[in-house]
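Quick log. Single chain, no ligands specified.
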Amino acid sequence: MRLMIKNARIIDPSQNLDRVTHLYIARGRIAGIGDEAPEGFSADQEIDATGKWLLPGLVDLKARLGDPGSNFAGNIASETKAAVAGGITSLCCPPDTSPVNDSQAVTELIQRRARQAATAFVMPVGALTQGLEGELLSGIYSLQQAGCVALSQADRPIQNSLTLKNALEYAVSHDMVVMLRCEDQKLKNNGVAHSGPVSSRLGLPPIPPSAETAALARDLILVEEAGIRAHFSQISCARSVELIAEAKKRGLPVTCDVAIHQLHLSEMDVMGFNSLFHTSPPLRSLEDKSALQMGLKHGIIDAVVSDHTPLERDDKLLPFGESRPGISGLETLLPLLLKLVNENGLDLMTAVRSVTQTPAAILGRNVIGSLEIGNSADLCIVDPQATWTLEEERMLSEGKNSPFIGWEFTGQVEQTFFQGRPVFRNNPI
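-> predicted structure:
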């Protein structure tokens, strides 16, 4: 089917494009952009997107899909539906599945279920060590051959420096990106909340910023020694932003991301003991939140992720310290980004780049997150004026564990296309 989307404000950072024009789709791919149709193009269907934005399908570097296994709520079919409702058409699933994605068989199972769902492009991330135990290295070559786009320990960082050094040197020999989450378990000491006045007042076991920054400093030294492309996941501290900035200035091939909730929430939100605000890493101080926002504005932080963790209701009904950390974030990634644009002065092109072009470049996959001619027609149409409230009963994710329920947003995904097919259409009541 040949489709013409007319009069949309097309925003594509990969082409430095921001103008009102038409987009043409043929055989599931981008056939052209501009006021004139490609030669020989005749539309079977037209969509008038006057007053709307047209963005490349978003790329999310970290989203748990609950499949395989039952660690989390939902499955690939349900969570990819939630993803496209938020305009996300490509997403990386970390290896903390059940069983752990440390083998070719698990990687292929994830891809097969994603193909069956046929809603979004799911990119498996392989485990750096067997069972994520941080001891024996995984078969990196077989994971790469099976289709893993990167390697990671999910939220279970390697504590042994020698093991991490060996892992990085093994990964660099296969030219694979390693996603590192920095956390020193001894300094964390089973803490559940940011070390500060709020955790002291509430009597919650604290997690000092040094639990992240000490591990980050160590990892940067090992990354430099190995000469590997490293991506630091979910930084949460002001000092972490400074360390990454210094490393980039010295020419290290490093990138980093931040979870979207860290840009909106802080330790102050934990005051009510509400387990929906229990995250890992924890919500930090107001100063940390401000530093993260500035890091994104100035390009030190490269990408923004949902860190989607869909949990069963019982996981969040426990007392704060005993509840499972995590937020269901696919459906609020873009709305929360646009909130930063509307209320915090974040540049729109920078915001869109952080969830399209840059995460694609981090993975070395420039065919996603871009509306270049010939690329798969993965895109979303956004109504920038639509105001709406996040309601639990209207969330498509099986995990309803969002602290943003009841928040009002401006800007809503109206339609999402994957490989040229409509996979989501908003039906307001």
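The CA atoms of residues 161 and 218 lie 8 Å apart.
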